[in-house]
Amino acid sequence: MSAHPNAHQLFTQVADPGTFVSWDIPLIDVGPSAEYAQELARAAEKSGVDESVVSGEALVRGRRVAFVACEFGFLAGTIGMAAAERLVVTIERATAEGLPLLAGPASGGTRMQEGTLAFMAMVKISAAISRHKEAGLPYLVYLRHPTTGGVMATWGSLGHLTVAEPGALVGFLGPRVHEALFGFAFPEGVQTSENLFRHGLLDAVVPPE
Question: Residue 205 forms beta bridges with which residues?
Fold first, then answer.
């Protein structure tokens, strides 16, 4: 297994063996252009999943827990309209069924191919999480490598507890974007989970298991 597990590997490491059940809803039609549709098809073939978000439930030490995680292998885990809808439906189902929700983002942010609509979808995700927390239900976040952009700024930062994978790249502005915008790189080690923990932005840095 790689140093940075994918979504299904994370579920396997965290859940009681053989208890994971998918909650993935059929994807909504985002009306992609022919070029974007081909890009989505290639991403699905490469990653083995149909979108950048994987959802479900499992037992963790005998207790039902709802899961949602990004698959970075699908277009860098970016969140478009279909992925956002899957997230919202999962969060709302966890709330309705009174389940703790464990999120494992690993994402480059919102999906640029879908423009403003993808950015606006982050508001729906954040609102669903707020309702989950208002219902008195735990929302626990495990930041994986890498978590940046709109995902870090929204549902990656809303946990009652927020922990991160060792050595993960974690931050809002991706290092390549920062360098392109400002002409110089971030200082070494700034955007690591260990550095964010040292500065009080994370509750812990822990391996998946």
Answer: 164
Question: Whole-model pTM?
Answer: 0.92
Q: Are 61 and 101 a contacting pair, CB within 8 Å?
A: no
2 has a pLDDT exceeding 80: no
Sign of CA dihedral 80, 159, 94, 144: positive
Sequence-distant (6+) residues with CB within 8 A of 93 are 23, 66
CB atoms closer than 10 angstroms to residue 142: 24
What per-residue confidence (pLDDT) applies to 31?
Answer: 87
Peptide bond just before 146 cis, omega within 30 deg: yes
Is 134 a residue whose pLDDT tops 90? yes
Q: What is the CA radius of gyration of the chain?
A: 16
DSSP codes, 176-196: HHHHHHHSSPPPTTTTBHHHH
Dihedral angle of Cα 161, 74, 127, 120, to the nearest 10 degrees: 140
* Beta bridge partner(s), residue 110: 79
What pLDDT is attached to residue 190? 82
CA distances from 81 to 48, 112, 118, 143, 187 (A): 19, 11, 6, 21, 34
